[in-house]
Design goal:
Layout lengths: L6 H41 L4 H6 L1 E4 L6 E4 L25 E5 L2 E4 L5 E4 L2 E9 H4 L1 E5 L5 H5 L2 H27 L2
Antiparallel strand pairs: 1-2, 3-4, 5-6, 6-7
Helix pairs in contact: 1-5
Length: 179
């Protein structure tokens, strides 16, 4: 009995598998560009009291082939993005301005020098001109890239990306290689 191996057929199948594995990897990278901003926004909003839409708006995905990256750019945000209270100024009553920058930690600002105008918190210098009314400065906090740079958030982002990319890679390898 003689057993023959048709190497032409095996080579053809191996080349087809290689092509399909490249396709699967490209799909994983494409999924990363599409889904990673949502994963990052979820991790940022787990620590900071900000809307996911605002966090995603600071991200852009780029890359081609087997390379991809997420760029985070953004300006420094005012405290109005972090659940500023009161929403409207109470009429003829003293009020305390507060904001919840970190989830579950509401912070108050000095009442005599902080006030709200058109939904933004302002602070005035104690010894300003025109009987202590000017100059006024808006209160600023953090930018989205600074939030993502927080050690706790960075670890969470890396863990989620690794975990989710492995799921996506497994999915596409099963889909294209049929394993």
């Amino acid at each position: 009995m003689q057993i023959k191996c048709d190497t032409k057929e095996v080579n053809r199948k191996l080349k087809a598998l290689k092509g399909q594995s490249d396709t699967a990897l490209k799909k994983v990278v494409s999924d990363f560009k599409r889904r990673a901003p949502a994963w990052i926004a979820k991790d940022i909003t787990a620590v900071y009291n900000i809307k996911k839409k605002e966090a995603r708006g600071a991200m852009t995905a780029s890359g081609s082939g087997l390379d991809a990256e997420i760029d985070l750019k953004g300006r420094v945000l005012t405290v109005a993005h972090f659940g500023l209270k009161p929403k409207n100024v109470p009429a003829k009553r003293p009020y305390t301005v507060s904001a919840e920058i970190f989830k579950g930690k509401r912070e108050s600002f000095h009442t005599l020098t902080t006030f709200i105008h058109n939904g933004t918190a302002f602070s005035r210098e104690k010894n300003g001109t025109i009987s202590g009314r000017l100059p006024m400065h808006a209160l600023y906090t953090l930018s989205i890239p600074q939030m993502a740079g927080n050690e706790e958030v960075t670890e969470s982002i890396q863990k989620d990306i690794d975990e989710n990319l492995m799921k996506r890679a497994q999915h596409y390898l099963e889909r294209y290689l049929g394993s």
